[in-house]
Design goal:
The complex is a heterodimer of chains A (about 110) and B (about 110).
Chain A: E1 3-7, E2 10-13, E3 19-26, E4 32-38, E5 44-52, E6 55-58, E7 65-70, E8 73-78, E9 87-94, E10 100-102, E11 106-110
Parallel strand pairs in A: 2-11
Antiparallel strand pairs in A: 1-3, 3-8, 4-5, 4-9, 5-6, 7-8, 9-10, 9-11
Chain B: E1 3-6, E2 11-14, E3 19-21, E4 23-26, E5 32-38, E6 44-50, E7 56-59, E8 62-65, E9 75-77, E10 86-93, E11 101-102, E12 106-111
Parallel strand pairs in B: 2-12
Antiparallel strand pairs in B: 1-4, 3-9, 5-6, 5-10, 7-8, 8-9, 10-11, 10-12
The chains are: A mainly beta (about 110), B mainly beta (about 110).
Chain lengths: ~110, ~110
């Protein structure tokens, strides 16, 4: 069966510090991978998606970047965090445009 | 383009009440439709899905029917429980498009 791991679960970082959130998928190959952000009390905002190694599509201009160094690994990064980067970050995968499966999320607080 | 419109929340119901959360969509092509549930502090979980017109998805007492004529996929449950308190998202996916389209979510609170 397929599983998705996302870590860390919570993170408190000072403004201006770097960020690296990691997501890995097991039990499938060549998945589509996604990073979403969810601000408090709001819906989902798609940040990045990837259909293959090294292929990243950005949905919104921002202070963040994404990379896919391996087939089942998706990393969300920032060189310098802003207060507005605080939120709940969700990684997800899907195959063949069917339903997406989500990780447990990372609660990021920038202070 | 594709879009999903769902009922604004929050919705508050008493235990054992009947639940309906409305969802309508616009899509190019033939979408699959989904309902996701998000419990506090967690990621989204797929609750149910339907892949073609007139299909009914069901799970944990929840149901939704894919209505092509009204472009709707309303979520229903006959008798809600306190444990159903969560945020519910309607979504669609279209073959050939890598991205799911989500509604804004509806927060449901069930009071004993």
């Amino acid at each position: 069966s397929q599983t998705i791991h996302q870590w860390p679960a919570t993170l408190v970082q000072p403004v201006g510090s770097p960020l690296s959130l990691e997501c890995t998928v097991e039990g499938t190959s060549n998945p589509n991978l996604y990073w979403y952000r969810q601000a408090a009390g709001r819906g989902l905002q798609l940040l990045f998606y990837s259909v293959g190694i090294g292929q990243i599509s950005s949905e919104v201009p921002q202070n963040l970047s994404a990379s896919r160094p391996q087939d089942r690994q998706f990393i969300l990064s920032s060189k310098k965090l802003l207060l507005s980067d605080s939120g709940f970050y969700l990684c997800a995968w899907s195959r063949l445009n069917t339903e997406a499966f989500f990780g447990q999320g990372t609660r990021l607080t920038v202070v | 383009g594709n879009s999903v419109t769902q009922m604004e929340g929050p919705v508050t119901l008493s235990e054992e009440a009947f639940l309906t959360i409305n969802c309508t969509y616009t899509a190019t092509g033939y979408p699959s439709l989904f309902w996701y549930v998000q419990y506090p502090g967690e990621g989204l979980q797929l609750l149910l899905k339907a892949t073609k017109a007139d299909d009914k998805g069901s799970n944990k007492g929840f149901e939704a029917t894919y209505r092509k004529e009204t472009t709707s996929f309303h979520l229903e449950k006959g008798s809600v429980q306190v444990s159903d308190s969560a945020v519910y998202f309607c979504a669609l996916g279209v073959t050939g498009n890598e991205k799911l389209t989500f509604g804004t979510g509806t927060r449901l609170t069930i009071i004993p």
